[in-house]
Amino acid sequence: MERENLPLDRRLRQEILFARERVYRFGQPTPMERLILPGSEPGPEIWVKREDLSPVKCYKWRGACNAMTELTPEQRAKGVVTASAGNHAQGVALAAKTLGIHARIYMPRSTPKVKQNAVLHHGGAFVRIMLAGDSYDEAVTSAREDERSSGATYVHAYDDLKVMAGQGTLADEVVLSGHGPFDAAYLQIGGGGMASAVSCWLKTYWPHMEAVGVEGVGQASMKAALAAGSPVELHDLDIFCDGTAVRKAGTHPFGICQQSLDRVATVTNAEVSAAIRVLWETLRCISEPSGAMGLAAVIKDRAALAGKKVLIVITGANIDFLQLGLIAQSEGSSSTASRALRVRIPERPGAMLALLDSCFDGLNIADFQYGLHRTDEAWPVFTVTSENADTLAALPARLESGGYLWEDLTGAVDVAFRAIPLRGDLLTHPVFLRLDFYERSGALHDFLSRLIRDRASLCYFNYRQSGERIGRALIGLDFHSAEARAAFLAELPEHGEGYRSCKPVDDAVLARMTA
Question: What's the CATH code, domain 3-53+184-193+209-332?
Fold first, then answer.
């Protein structure tokens, strides 16, 4: 029987066998590694396929190299064209340079520089990056126009059997690793090329294994396709996990996933951020957001998976360095429970310290935002964390018993963007201090208690925990007289117990803050 007449899943299995002979001229098999989840709760035995250690730091080299190896001499002479959010582009670039094929790679204008630079590194003189549109779909449109006008061969990122088969070789390595059989495999989905091929191949050997597709809540195109019975286009698309931000599942991957996936799980961006942290703390692996989606779903299902052997794939590590900082500071990446609260206190000296003394004992203040904007009352915003969820849950009751009004602002936009109001016309004799203190429990409280207490009113506070040993804050104090302000500054030691440095900022900063 001709291969084209075989059922789709059988054709894919055949193509994976052929891909075995092609992909390893471009790179070597990637390792498997055991991951032990932190915490005392029982959980699964997790094995990680480290595709982040591949030649292009993601699994996409497999499919691109397999497909381009099969091009005819005529097709090679006309070159190839593709569209990619970054990872597939690197695979095409690697294949282009190795095979001597010229490639034009269309990428969204928002593609992280780390991915653009990697494409040029792997492809050298054989690749040209064409930035087009603001999304992957717009880049695809431009690449397809190039294909029609130039006659170049389009190498699809996922909706191509040879590309899918190349990705399937990672599953072949899992089978040959000796770490199976697995009770479950959690496989992230963008267009579906990797999840379809890997689930198809693993279920050939372990038919009772549960294959779980994993998608972001705001980009679940395969889940929508399976519900509708055919691929459908998502209207809105979340691009936090940019490697899986695909608006419409591929036709071929959908056909396979209908048969090989048992279910599709969805994860939030906060859950993905938490999984990135776990990968760093356990394996010292820095994953891009889409690379951590499988682990995010496993952590979510931890209790149900206790005692089972589970496979996940770190699909890539091509993350922009700046994005790492945003993820590290996000609520989801915290290893402890957190909550943001806005609390009303009287606008008078010592009121802030009294609040900290009475209600915040045993809690870590991870973020503190306050600016004077009323003469009678203040509403500072605290983001607090605790290893003990019960201690955090008891905070509202503590506030209420102390007579404080409070409001939950967890996830509020103004808190996330640090919109701190400050009315300069309400200040009399202010001074702003740059404080560097040693990060330990109670350090801020001790500073306020020892040096400020009843001498001045706190008019501004901007502090966010960074994970360093040294915490940094910008503090504003307002004094009732110029003499009191001058006396405070004269007595203020630049270095002191519990803090490394405390310096007044210059008048130009004060003018900008209170304008």
Answer: 3.40.50.1100
CATH 3.40.1020.10 fits 337-514, yes or no: yes
Domain ranges of the chain: 3-53+184-193+209-332, 61-156, 337-514
Fold for the domain defined by 61-156? Rossmann fold (3.40.50)
- Exposed, middle or buried, 4 (CB in 10 Å: 0-12/13-18/19+)? exposed
Q: How many helices (H) and strands (E) does the chain have?
A: 20, 20
Which residue bears the tokens 């400020």?
452
- For 107, phi then psi, to 5°, come to -135, 145
pLDDT digit string, tens, across residues 62-110: 999 999 999 999 999 999 999 998 899 999 999 999 999 999 999 988 8
**Cα distances (Å, whole numbers) of residue 53 to 158, 176, 298:** 21, 18, 21
460 vs 464: CA distance, rounded Å: 14
Q: What is the pLDDT of residues 445-479, one digit of tens each?
A: 777 777 776 788 889 999 988 777 888 899 999 99
Whether residue 231 contacts residue 254, with contact meaning beta carbons closer than 8 Å, is answered with yes
Same fold flag, 3-53+184-193+209-332 and 61-156: yes
Q: Is 112 in contact with 137 (CB distance < 8 Å)?
A: no
Helix (H, G, I), strand (E, B) or coil at 35: strand
Of the candidates 202, 189, 194, the one whose C-alpha atom is nearest the C-alpha of residue 91 is: 194
How far is CA 66 from each of CA 134, 156, 227, rounded to the nearest angstrom? 29, 12, 31
